[in-house]
Write a structure and sequence with these properties.
With 169 residues, the chain is of the alpha+beta class. It has 4 helices and 8 strands. The strands form 2 sheets. The chain has a 4-stranded antiparallel β-sheet with strand order 2-1-8-3. A hairpin with a 2-residue loop joins strand 1 and strand 2. It starts with 5 loop residues before the first helix and ends with a strand.
Length: 169
C-alpha cells in the first residue's frame, strides 16, 4: 500500500513555479519564518537568495558564480548598465577596466581550491578580473569560484560579456 504525502505532492507541482518566485523581494524575516519554516525552500537556499550572480560569456560559453556583495556594490554597477564587455588577447584572464571597486577590509571567505579552474576577483588595483586558477595571485581578493556545465575557455579576440543580477535561488 502506497502512502500519499501531501507536502511532497505540492512541492512536485510547484517545481516549475518556485524558480520564478522573486524571493529576493521578500523581507528576510518572512523568508525565514514562513517560506523556510513551511519547507517551500531550504534554509541553505534562503541564505543565497540575496547573493549576486555573475555570468561571463565568451564565444558562446558561459561560466557563473554567486557571492555576497553587501560591502562591495558590484550589483549596483550592473543595475546602471546590464552588461559590460571586454576584448583581450589572453586565454587566462580578462580585466573589466570600467568595473573598479574598493577592496573590502575583511578577508575573503573564498580560498583557491584544487579542481576549480576559474575565479572572479578584485585585483590589487581594484579592477574586477576573471582569472584562470594559474593566474591567481596572493594579492587578489577572491570573490567567487566560477563554474560551468561545460568546459569553459577564454577565446582570444572574442568579446567577453559580464552580467550580474540577484541570484534568487
Amino acid at each position: 500500500m502506497k502512502i500519499f504525502n501531501l507536502v511532497e505532492s505540492i512541492k512536485a507541482d510547484l517545481a516549475d513555479v518556485i524558480p520564478n518566485v522573486p524571493f529576493y523581494k521578500m523581507d528576510k524575516s518572512f523568508l525565514t519564518h514562513f517560506v523556510v519554516a513551511k519547507g517551500i525552500i531550504s534554509a541553505d537556499q534562503a541564505s543565497h537568495v540575496f547573493d549576486t550572480l555573475v555570468e561571463i560569456t565568451n564565444n558562446g560559453d558561459v561560466v557563473s558564480g554567486a557571492f555576497k556583495d553587501d560591502d562591495i556594490g558590484i550589483l549596483r554597477s550592473f543595475k546602471k548598465k546590464k552588461s559590460r564587455q571586454s576584448t583581450r588577447q589572453s586565454t587566462k584572464k580578462i580585466r573589466f577596466l570600467s568595473l573598479k571597486f574598493p577592496i573590502p577590509s575583511t578577508p575573503s571567505t573564498v580560498t583557491k581550491m584544487a579542481g576549480v579552474e576559474w575565479y572572479l576577483c578584485l585585483a590589487k588595483d581594484q579592477v574586477l578580473t576573471f582569472k584562470h586558477h594559474s593566474m591567481v595571485e596572493r594579492s587578489d581578493y577572491l570573490l567567487t569560484e566560477m563554474r560551468s556545465d561545460t568546459e569553459f575557455q577564454l577565446t582570444p579576440n572574442a568579446t567577453t560579456f559580464i552580467t550580474g543580477r540577484i541570484n534568487n535561488i
